[in-house]
Amino acid sequence: MVRKREQIILDHIRHVGKATYDELAHILKVSTMTVRRDITRMADEGRITKTLKGAQRIADDDLDLLETQLALRLSEHVAEKRALARVALEMIHNGQTLFLDGSTTCGELAVLLGQDGQGLTVITNSLLVAQKLRRNRDNTLVLVGGRFDFDTYTFVGPSAEEQIRQYFVDLSFMSTRGFVPTEGTYESSVDSFRIKQGIVKQSRQSVLMVDHSKFGRRALSKVLNIEQIDTIITDDQTPSDQLVSLREKGKTVLLATGFKPNFEDNKSTN
Question: Cα separation of 83 and 11, whole Å?
Fold first, then answer.
């Protein structure tokens, strides 16, 4: 029911441009407090812009995201992704060179870096990440080019893979479709996983940001071996036996705690 209300709100605002809480409450036949909560959640997810008396559609350069498969990924496990991003931010120091992949988890990290990062060089093949970072001129943004994948908002293909091999980074941050601690990471997109395989070889430290929903899942292709991952950032809903397994393999495991998960989310996205 919540998601149905949100879709009605989104469709209405995209059609008319903006709407008040009272107007939306009338359309949905719910209280204004219910609408306020929906609007707050949707604004936090980057789907609309909150205003003093209601909401308006987001800037045109972000609207295109809502026409892709990325829209669904942006709306799932948001609390977990943000919690992981806050932990990742603590690992980063001014002057470092970073790589961020095209995952929505790294998109949340990009939001934080766009607000607080200083003196960083951030390399990415993700237009989503670049959009989040572009407003902070204290950092250097390097966008890897190639063939544009409309579903993931990333640049992929031989040209992107060749460019990746030219860079060396202090920290590479990635997420994944599925993760088995005894094996490694799995992806569905052949085009994107070659980028990850390439940058890990060029990184001082590789960091996997993976919420509890990814554990024990496999996808089409194996991408990274567990030996290629140095640090795993996950949340405190991850089964303890999985954490023990990682630590026994000598991996650094960082836990995000104190967030409020969205129990309506039941799909795994990266």
Answer: 29
Q: Which residues 6+ apart lie within 8 Å of 87 measured at CB?
A: 233, 254, 255, 256
pTM, two decimals, is 0.73
pLDDT in tens, 21-53: 999 999 999 999 999 999 998 887 777 888 888
Contact 270, 73 (CB under 8 A): yes
* 32-44 and 2-16 helices, crossing angle to 10°: 80
C-alpha to C-alpha distance for 134 and 155, rounded to whole angstroms: 17
Neighbours of 177 (CB within 10 A): 23
Q: Which of 153, 50, 166 is nearest to 107 (CA)?
A: 153
C-alpha atoms less than 13 angstroms from C-alpha of 107 in its C-beta half-sphere: 27
CB 38 within 8 A of CB 12: no
Q: What is the pLDDT of residues 64-77, one digit of tens each?
A: 554 455 555 655 67
Beta strands in 62-193 (DSSP E): 97-100, 121-124, 140-143, 147-149, 154-156, 169-174, 178-180, 184-187
Structural domains of the chain, with CATH: 2-58 (1.10.10.10), 72-256 (3.40.50.1360)
Closest CA to 255 of 100, 121, 94, 84: 84
